[in-house]
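TODO from last week: model 4-azaleucine resistance probable transporter AzlC.
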Amino acid sequence: MTAEVGATRAEEIRAGIRESWAVGLGLIPLGLAFGVLMTQSGFAWWWTPIFSLMIFAGSMEFLAIGLVTAGVGPLSAALTTFLVNFRHVFYGLTFPRSQIKSKLGRVYSTYGLIDEAYAIVSARPPGKISGTRLLTIQILCQSLWVIPGIVGALLGENFLQGLRGAEFALTALFIVLAWESFRTNPDWSLPLMAIALSVLSAWVLPKQMMVAGLTLYVGFLLLRYWMPRVDRAFEWRGKKHGARGALGETVVEYPNADEGERK
């Protein structure tokens, strides 16, 4: 059944803007920081919209600056991109692109699928969104990233040449994301293993530390997901928190239940 029966296209566009503006505003400071960092890394300002339109992957755009300036090969860059954005594979399985009637619109929706758009749409009941509203949400999110990026690049090239610290924006972003993820699933084994594998990768493969560390950590998560006993062996959290698996799934344990009766 088509969502929002009887609603006009203009109403759906306005509704999409209302639903996404609060989340989208959070993209503005990140876009500004990205634009400033681009020019401080030696790129002309016009490279900023090229990166944002061709890559459009948030944190991966920040990483791409380092990959390009370091001369990383295409294979390593592709593997890094795959590992960083691997979660998007699962986003696509439930994102309601089928609500979009035009083929071009569905192609854009696939390209424009980012964390923020997925979070906004997934908060709605399944099947309760129109294609027009869905595309409005995605276009607005991209606009609130690309336009501030251009503004930041122009400011960085013309007025902020001596500004220091913009290169720390990616580090700060990942610290915040890591903290929010840890609050959702407070398993100490996850950040400690990430640190241990990073140190190991830096020692064994210093020139490929990022790719090696990400590969090892994803392998560690998959091992815990496929082998529940290994997952329980590594799990380390406070007593007040309910048990969760490595990927965040809840594990409810009953005091008098046998192993096979746990959910």
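Done. Residues 9-166 form one domain.
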